[in-house]
Design a protein that fits this description.
This protein is of the alpha+beta class. Helix content is about 20%, strand content about 45%. Strand 15 and strand 16 form a beta hairpin. The N and C termini lie far apart (about 110 Å). InterPro entries: Ig-like_dom, Ig-like_dom_sf, Ig-like_fold, Ig_V-set.
Length: about 250
Amino acid sequence: MFRYLRLVFFCVFLEGASGDAAEEKSVTEGELITLNTGVTEILNNDMILWMFGPEETRIAEIVNQKVNIYDNNGTFKDRLQMDSKTGTLTIRDIRTDHSGVYKLIIINSNALHKKFNVTVFAPLPVPSVSSRSCSSSGGSPGFSCSLLCSVDVNSVTLSWFRGDSLLSSIRVSELNSSIPLHLKQEDLKNSYSCVASNPAGSQTKHLNIRKLCPPCSDAVRVFSERLIPSLVYAVLGIISVSLLICYVKSFEK
């Protein structure tokens, strides 16, 4: 009972320190995150308390060297684990609704407290890159090509790289946002990639420039290879239908 009174008193005392900066943590949804206490060994009289959210709801504690996990509202659903020797808190299979401030209170010979601001990001997909155009350059051999890199998530940074050099970058706040890249004939010799990133990780799309941006002569050839057979089949179909109609009419006579 005395230990709980000490804990309540300490929590009230800490209200004046609520503005202390929190340690920032980022993680991808579905992964686990570990919040360290910095304690190497818990003694018999030590008390450790973890709280979560703006209401500072108690979620885990160690009292008398016994671990207690609390999840009365079902927010974590057996995802919480507390190390009995250090008080470190682990959240497995973390979800986006677990983002928020986690507050740690340690009562021993030195009363301490820490805060962690945890941000959980949705998993990043590999960016999608498409070719927007191909046109000859003033009638001379070569081409100009526009590429578009997009990703179907928000709160992400999209960046174009030539080799290891950053070319351009934008912060995406809406779904299906994109970033363009314009290439010329002399750019073919370089390698390019589009990177989607957030504080929790990144995904990279490496490009096959020759495939995405063939020289215009190649583009015309590819177009012809696809279009001409279709036209031939269409013409043959029309001829076949016409012959069938003529045959039917001649039979009726």
